[in-house]
Specification:
The protein has a single domain, classed as Maf protein (Alpha-Beta Complex). It is 34% helix and 26% strand. The chain is built from five helices and seven strands, in the order βαβαββαβββαα. Strands 1, 2, 3, 4, 5, 6 and 7 form a seven-stranded mixed beta sheet that branches. A hairpin with a 6-residue loop joins strand 3 and strand 4. The relative contact order is 0.17. It binds inosinic acid. Inosinic acid binds next to strand 3 and helix 3. Inosinic acid (IMP) binds next to strand 3 and helix 3.
């Protein structure tokens, strides 16, 4: 089964396509930069994108919106994670967290699947905390400062851990269960 994954992010694509290919779903990357809606939740961003893209791209396709939600910052940067990273970088994020005792945060991933009939949504999240310094060279985005709950490593330090328990992997497992009826937990 071939499904288009509309994204400009090759890291997201690599993480998703590896898992999907094991279940016989071949993802093809469509590197199309569309205008993202401004919204507080990834679900809203994804539904609005499906609305726009379903008029342009033949189904089946998926899109994914994700972000880092920091509890003590009321969920910031959330759906604005990509923009904030570009604007202030990881060092800027660490500065924002300086003197902050509550460092808990979560990554959220929401997949929107358009099969030509109705939009379907699959979401995943992983709890953790913001480290006090940048660690590791793997992954992308905020991976060097995110430590999943119960572990000492950042995602960037331990990519095999990320491949097991990330927000994106959880969302894609739900997607695979929906399209293939296969439980890949
Ligand atoms: P968007 O989904 O394209 O709006 O981008 C979400 C942004 O959130 C990315 O550009 C990253 O900065 C951040 N992000 C989402 N998922 C991850 C992840 O798995 N690791 C690190 N950063 C992530």
């Amino acid at each position: 089964m071939l499904v288009k994954f509309i994204t400009t992010n090759k890291h997201k694509f690599a993480e998703a396509s590896e898992l999907c290919s094991r279940s016989g779903i071949q993802l093809s990357m469509v590197d199309l930069d569309y205008e993202e809606a401004r919204a507080d939740t990834c679900e809203q961003v994804v539904l609005s994108a499906i609305n726009i893209l379903s008029g342009e791209i033949k189904p089946p396709f998926i899109i994914e919106d994700s972000g880092l939600f920091v509890r003590s910052l009321n969920g910031f940067p959330g759906t604005y994670s990509a923009y904030v990273l570009k604007a202030i970088g990881l060092d800027g994020m660490l500065k924002l967290m300086r003197g902050n005792d509550d460092r808990s945060a979560k990554f959220v991933s929401v997949i929107g699947y358009w099969d030509g009939n109705k939009p379907c949504i699959f979401s995943g999240s992983v709890e953790g905390e913001i480290s006090s310094e940048l660690r590791g060279a793997g992954g992308f985005g905020y991976d060097p400062l995110f430590i999943p709950k119960g572990y000492k490593f950042t995602f960037a330090e331990n990519m095999s851990l990320k491949a097991k328990l990330s927000h994106r992997i959880e969302a894609f497992r739900k997607f695979i269960l929906h399209v293939k009826g296969e439980n890949v937990w």
